[in-house]
């Protein structure tokens, strides 16, 4: 069913370098969330904090009643079993074929028989469309296939939470579109909580139920997709529409002179909000909301042309 992650007042620094402070958000059970932010704003650090690989300085991360930030190693070990993680490069063992890579967590963490392991591995290989490639070595397949193999491995212990660290990095737009569809289909099938760190604006605009934006050492905004895509808040608007005009500069915040030079420049209108990507079988996910619902409920007029089928095609 997926479990909720409740983050409250989280701050992390390395020595004197504050990465982010006072981050609070709830990743709802079973929903898909995307975390965005300029390079170096600590998205990977955030993911690592969620699985207890890095300890925050202050704040809590509560999952099923356990605070990961302060729990014992033993409790952390138990909580980690709820997670599946897709690392950026798939993190495959180069000398093992895909079958053994995917079977690895089962052999390490369970006492299942080889015949049970075979059933599970083949089920997950099927889920990600890799049946027939079991004997290949990671070096013999494309980057997209490696990601899918990494995903099969992330799913092998039936996680309640799946973390994706830049699943689209290094993939061409077509492979990214296929991977996004796979992510949506998987969420519909396994109903786990998904958190995706990405730089891909199309992914952020079309895949998730919720979007977060880390910027300048804090969480600039977190909420439903339609809330962020209709937001006029300068940082959110600039980032989600990949624009140069706005507070975010080349190396982070623009200085006063740069901002003054932009004063009076007209911002392009907000583009239409695309339809959310649906499962390929056409059956809505449990957490999927009807298009435009958030805007209607909150009295927000979405940009013209929003929620039309052709708006979705134009941005996919
Ligand atoms: N273990 C560590 N020790 C010291 N500094 C670290 C450590 N891990 C990360 N950092 C620093 O934290 C900052 C944020 O890094 P992080 O990789 O989380 O950014 P990011 O938002 O994921 O970036 P990108 O989008 O480029 O992947 C960087 O300045 C990085 O050098």
């Amino acid at each position: 069913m997926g479990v909720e992650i409740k983050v409250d007042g989280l701050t992390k620094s390395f020595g004197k370098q504050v990465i982010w402070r006072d981050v609070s958000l709830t990743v709802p059970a079973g929903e898909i969330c995307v975390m965005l932010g300029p390079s170096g704003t600590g998205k990977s650090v955030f993911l690592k904090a969620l699985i207890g690989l890095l300890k925050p300085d202050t704040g809590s991360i509560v999952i099923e009643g356990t605070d990961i930030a302060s729990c014992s190693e033993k409790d952390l070990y138990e909580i980690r079993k709820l997670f599946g993680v897709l690392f950026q490069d798939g993190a495959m063992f180069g000398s093992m074929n895909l079958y053994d890579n995917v079977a690895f967590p089962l052999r390490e963490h369970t006492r299942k028989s080889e015949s049970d392991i075979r059933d599970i591995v083949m089920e997950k290989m099927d889920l990600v469309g890799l049946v027939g490639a079991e004997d290949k070595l990671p070096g013999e397949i494309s980057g997209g296939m490696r990601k899918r193999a990494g995903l099969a491995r992330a799913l092998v212990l039936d996680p309640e939470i799946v973390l994706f660290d830049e699943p689209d990095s290094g993939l061409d737009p077509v492979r990214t579109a296929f991977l996004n569809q796979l992510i949506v289909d998987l969420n519909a099938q396994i109903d786990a909580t998904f958190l995706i760190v990405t730089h891909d604006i199309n992914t952020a605009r079309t895949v998730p139920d919720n979007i977060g934006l880390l910027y300048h050492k804090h969480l600039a905004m977190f909420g439903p997709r339609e809330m962020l895509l209709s937001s006029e808040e300068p940082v959110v608007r600039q980032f989600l529409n990949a624009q140069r005009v706005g507070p975010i500069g080349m190396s982070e915040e623009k200085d006063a002179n740069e901002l003054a030079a932009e004063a009076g420049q007209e911002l392009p209108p907000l583009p239409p909000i695309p339809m959310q990507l649906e499962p390929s079988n056409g059956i809505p996910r449990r957490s999927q909301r009807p298009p435009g619902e958030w805007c209607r409920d909150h009295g927000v007029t979405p940009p013209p042309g929003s929620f039309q089928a052709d708006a979705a095609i134009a941005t996919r």
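Residues 5-238 form a domain with the Rossmann fold fold (CATH 3.40.50.300). The CA atoms of residues 6 and 62 lie 5 Å apart.
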